[in-house]
Every structure is written in structure tokens, then in C-alpha cells.
Amino acid sequence: MEENITNGIAFALSQEFGDEYNIYTESIEQGLKRPCFFILHKGTKYDFLPMNRCIAYYEFELDLIINEKLNQKINSITQRVFNAIKTVDCSDGCINAFDLQLESKEGSYKIQVVYCMSGRFNESGYDLMEKLDINEGE
Questions:
Q1: In angstroms, rounded to a whole number, what is the distance separating the alpha carbons of residues 122 and 94?
Q2: Model pTM?
Q3: DSSP letters of 7-61?
Q4: Contact partners, residue 110, CB within 8 Å, separation at least 6
Q5: How far apart are CA 113 and CA 43, in angstroms?
Q6: pLDDT tens sequence across 121-131
Q7: Which of 135, 84, 77, 83 has its CA nearest to residue 109?
Q8: b/e sequence 62-71, b meaning 16+ C-beta within 10 Å
């Protein structure tokens, strides 16, 4: 699922920015072309609920490396990013962002995004009782 979401984020950014920005999902040793995005899956957390249900939180970080210095241009770019990634198609359907945050640090910008999905576990590997007869009074 994490790979599907990563691909969905990359596709959404590509749709929004076209060839303006390079999009990387793997680390690169050399040849970084600015401006660009790095997409990093930070982790997945599951909250288990009764009846084999759970809520999954998929945390991602997008590093935005740009050459812009003007706040107005930077705000415009980050707003476009937020709009592009708030809902992404991850091949199993669309998934919505639960939390979006922007952090600025020395000319680079980190966007934290958490996607949330509920689901049900299909447990197998053991036989369930098919029928239980209860005879009262015997």
C-alpha cells in the first residue's frame, strides 16, 4: 500500500507541475536537478479496533527543493502542492490526507502528510465453528 501511495503522490505532483519539477522517490547520489521533490515514506501506524478492524496511518515527507526566494512565489508553490496531494489515487481508489504540515529550513521545505484509511483484517489460518447447537433443558 505504501508504494501505491508513493506512486499516487508522484502522479499527483506530476499532474500539477508537469515537467517544471523533477520528482524522486529513491535517493540519488549525484545529478540532482532543481527544482525537485523527494517523496519519502516515514512510517505506517495501525490502530487495532474490535471486530478485526483497524485504522492505518501512512506518514510521508515531501522535500521541496526550489530556487525561489520570494515568499509570495513560495506560498503559491506550497499551496499548489497541498492542493495536489490532499487526495491521491493509489490504484485501490482515492485516499485523503488526514494531516498536512509545512516546515521551512534553510532554503528547503518539508511537507509532512498523513493519509488515513480504515479497513478490516481477513483472518484465516484456523477453522471457525460453523454451527453451535445449544440444547436447553437437557
A1: 21
A2: 0.80
A3: HHHHHHHHHHHGGGSEEESS--SS---SSEEEEEEEEEEEEEETTTEEEEEEEEE
A4: 61, 62, 63, 64, 102, 103, 104
A5: 11
A6: 776 655 555 66
A7: 77
A8: bebbbeeeee
CB 109 within 8 A of CB 102: yes
Q: What is the helix (H) or strand (E) element at residue 80, kind and residue range?
A: helix 71-85
- With beta carbons less than 8 A apart as the criterion, state whether 55 and 117 touch: yes
Q: Write out pLDDT tens, residues 45-102.
A: 999 999 889 999 999 999 998 877 777 888 888 899 999 999 999 877 899 998 999 9
Rounded Cα distance between 110 and 43, Å, is 16
Beta sheet of 22-24, edge-to-edge order: 22-24, 36-49, 53-65, 108-120, 94-105, 87-89
Nearest CA among 80, 56, 47, 52 for reference residue 66: 80
SS3 assignment, position 91: coil
| Residue found under cell 480504515 | 118
pLDDT, tens digit, for every residue of 12-47? Answer: 999 999 888 999 988 776 777 888 899 999 999 999
